[in-house]
Design a protein that fits this description.
The structure is a homodimer. Chain A is α/β, with parallel strands linked by helices. Chain A has eleven helices and 14 strands. In chain A, the strands form three sheets. A six-stranded antiparallel beta sheet of chain A has the order 6-7-3-4-5-8. A six-stranded parallel beta sheet of chain A has the order 11-10-9-12-13-14, sandwiched between helices. A two-stranded antiparallel ribbon of chain A has the order 1-2. The interface between A and B is large, with 59 and 59 residues. Strand 14 of chain A pairs antiparallel with strand 14 of chain B, so a sheet runs across the interface. Chains A, B: Keywords: NADP, Oxidoreductase.
């Protein structure tokens, strides 16, 4: 049996010397190396920016969506959208565990897991696409995937429905990072607060700011904001177009008596929301960019351009305990869980 | 006289409602609004990523470089490279100050200043290009520019040559951010340490880590590394290709007895260096991306893909006192100043 590298470099076809994520093509042969785990895949949860792009390219036609997805995997050996660069995650059953992982992993054959590493670096083979659930970015397939030794995962909990767990785990990094960043007394703005990761961020922020803090939810439509209001996830609600920096700044200024916010968490999967985030945040404040549509240059030069001394953090989908933190929200807040089940599971 | 907005939104032609930086076209008519400053421009210091792209597109031909630059400014009303999105900065003399700024600014007509906001948002008119100094990314022109009310600047100090001050101010954010981030005892890796901003970062890092810390300089060529060695700016030197993540990781591991580093500062203006930075940094460590070639998605998904819990910060070209901090280095270290004068001034 061939020996594999912990980061999966042995699977890289081109360009040589890179890791699987930046690689344009990786080997998706399903014969495992000694430190790999073979997964029988059941569902792909496509990254929201990627799925939106695919749907648009397909003009909303299901057969065309299937064709685009199959084509991506055939070309690259992984489901990495060539336009957005992003992937997603998957759910499946452990089928084989490489002998070099014995004693190193607590997984066993037959465990149902969600991989918490991106599809943009996961060797994948699609044999058949069974169902496209357009409204929740999920696609049921027949196929196989490989988890590398460094790859993170979560065993699907018994007390939560599978699709619910998958939807929550897909965005697990955002609420966990929010929990780490927010302190009592902070004023926190969640841009895209009515969305899939936004609602979980609001929940964690509200829990952490306490009675002396304030949580502001900004969303683009009255309808979604009403839903979040019903759940009581924030102290103040703003309806605004996140790409309109000037509108966002003015409305946040109004909500904070001109003081602006300590922490902005940006979850909107549309381009050009960097500047609204920067203008809404106090000097010495922090902006956490979780949106995959964030443009590095626009953020860096934008802050400089308006002379704002803010700390801008790039969203890391992984932080210790992120799966546990986000799944726990579903147990703590029955109403939020109900909304999550209706919308995403 | 027309009233202007502090952020310059009154100059945006398209798309409406955005700020000057993300705008594709701004008004470069040189009749000032009441809160603007008119500058008689002498030198443009083009952002290194941008100038490299322009030089490549021009096949190194000076006349072609001039043509590309003029064309950018004619199309956009500002020198924002359409490929890299980045700008640079300029040096010039204050020609007119809007009446609304009276008592708000300490500038006076005739002051020689460097604008510290990006050219990517600065209204600019080029009448003539006099000289292209290819080796230092500087271009002397005849022309005018506008500084908005929120725009930051530095008065050129009397005790340092102008071109030297301009070169230092161009990268002032990086050493100032390094000074804020680094603590005594830290192990710090500067990727691109032999470059223009890298050397200043090394200097600040070395000053701050003290005798219990360690500074590692990584550069791509023996020649430039030898130069930095001669200046004694680091404790350990690595020659490696920063885009080869696996090579970088192995060499940093060797230099740190497998412990890796607390803080990585990335100054390399080439794509695909995100992963080398991530793999070189300890869990819970910090990566400061100052390179304009940084790709947000590659960094975010890259860290998740290898299960690294690192704090990734987007370089903000502005932090309080950045001009003073970086200019002071030239007074403190005569040898570094000599090298800087030879290379960049």
């Amino acid at each position: 049996m061939k020996k594999g590298n912990p980061y999966g470099t042995h699977r890289v076809i081109e360009p040589k010397g890179t890791l699987p994520q930046p690689a344009t093509k990786i080997d998706n042969n399903m014969e495992i190396y000694d430190n790999e785990i073979l997964i029988d895949v059941q569902t792909l949860n496509i990254d929201s920016a990627s799925f939106t792009q695919i749907k648009n390219e397909a003009g909303g036609k299901v057969e065309k969506i299937k064709e685009i997805m199959k084509n991506i995997v055939e070309t690259r050996g992984k489901h990495q959208n060539p336009v957005t660069g992003s992937g997603g995650m998957l759910i499946g059953t452990v089928e084989k565990i490489g002998p070099a992982l014995e004693g190193k992993t607590d997984l066993k054959v037959g465990d149902k897991i969600a991989t918490l590493v991106s599809l943009s670096l996961t060797p994948l083979r699609i044999d058949e696409i069974n169902e496209v659930r357009e409204d929740i970015d999920q696609v049921d397939i027949k196929g196989k995937a490989i988890l590398f030794e460094s790859g993170i995962y979560a065993v699907i909990p018994n007390d939560l429905p599978e699709n619910l767990a998958l939807s929550v785990l897909d965005v697990a990094g955002a609420p966990a990072q929010t929990a780490k960043l927010v302190h009592p007394g902070d004023t926190v703005l969640v841009i895209g607060g009515a969305g899939k990761s936004g609602m979980l961020c609001l929940y964690e922020a509200k829990k952490r700011v306490g009675v002396t803090g304030k949580v502001i939810c900004l969303g683009h439509s009255e309808e979604t904001i009403e839903r979040v209001k019903g759940l009581g996830l924030a102290d103040h609600y703003i309806v605004a177009d996140a790409t309109n920096a000037v509108e966002v700044m003015n409305k946040v200024s109004e909500a904070t008596d001109g003081k602006m916010v300590d922490i902005t968490i940006n979850n909107v999967n549309v381009p050009n929301t960097e500047m609204g985030s920067i203008l809404s945040t106090k000097d010495d404040g922090t902006i956490y960019f979780f949106s995959m549509a964030t443009n590095f240059t626009k953020a860096a030069l934008g802050a400089e351009g308006v002379g704002k001394d803010v700390n801008m953090i790039m969203g890391n989908g992984y932080t210790k305990g992120h799966a546990e933190i986000s799944l726990e929200i579903m147990r703590e807040d029955k109403n939020l869980r109900k909304v999550y089940e209706d919308l995403y599971a």
